[in-house]
Amino acid sequence: MKILLEQIGRRFNREWIFKHVDYTFESGKSYAILGINGSGKSTLLQVISGALTSSIGNITYLLENKQIDVEEVYKHFSLAAPYLDLIEEFTLLETLDFHFNFKKRINNLNNNELVDLLDMQKSKNKQLKYFSSGMKQRVKLLLAFCSDTPLLLLDEPTANLDEQGINWYLDLVKSFGGNNRLVIVCSNQAHEYSFCDEQILVADYK
Ligand SMILES: Nc1ncnc2c1ncn2[C@@H]1O[C@H](COP(=O)(O)OP(=O)(O)OP(=O)(O)O)[C@@H](O)[C@H]1O
């Protein structure tokens, strides 16, 4: 997958969050979008994903050298982000079944293998509303990493995770972040993005 940003800008009302962003994202590489709180990382990620339109500029999406419409991009990415909610009434197993109705499982991993990856066999029939914030974050990350999509978007991936959780995330990166995937991480914490090949500073586009 290739995503080309040409002179992209986004404003809310009269305030420009970023402008003149020229950048190319390519499969097989990982990118970190960096900046302080409120600098516009999530906004840029949402523009890249097509969830938010840019105020100016063009974005082109190429999948195996064929252009795809912005309306179709959602089929090709998986996202873990603080603003993405899980359905709290579902149990863990129901969550996996529901999610993988829409996205293909990576390596055909079955529910039992996914629950093992989460180390949550004891909680598989528990509703997510009874999960701790760290457990929910692990579920979000697992759903994103284990969906077979060429584009993986991660916004604050280790929010709510303790040291063990951070190491678990880094294992996911090693296991499922490669294989010619395009990975984009929004962060302001080095341990979340130190594996990335390139860094984009939102402050450079003010
Ligand atoms: N829907 C919106 N309407 C108006 N302003 C918005 C909207 N969404 C975001 N903003 C503003 O855009 C700016 C960038 O927000 P954004 O969430 O992209 O920052 P961020 O770098 O991801 O922050 P954080 O590190 O805290 O997650 C902020 O000033 C925010 O208030």
From TrEMBL:
The cross-references to SMART domains, in alphabetical order and at most eight, read:
AAA
> Where do the ABC transporter domain residues begin and end?
3-203
Q: Does the keyword Transport apply?
A: yes
Q: Which InterPro entries match?
A: AAA+_ATPase, ABC_transporter-like_ATP-bd, ABC_transporter-like_CS, ABC_Transporter_VariousFunc, P-loop_NTPase
Q: Which UniProt keywords apply?
A: ATP-binding, Nucleotide-binding, Transport
Q: Name one GO molecular function term.
A: ATP binding
| Tagged with keyword Nuclease | no
The protein's name in its UniProt record: ABC transporter ATP-binding protein
- Source organism: Pedobacter psychrophilus
Q: What is the lineage of its organism?
A: Bacteria, Pseudomonadati, Bacteroidota, Sphingobacteriia, Sphingobacteriales
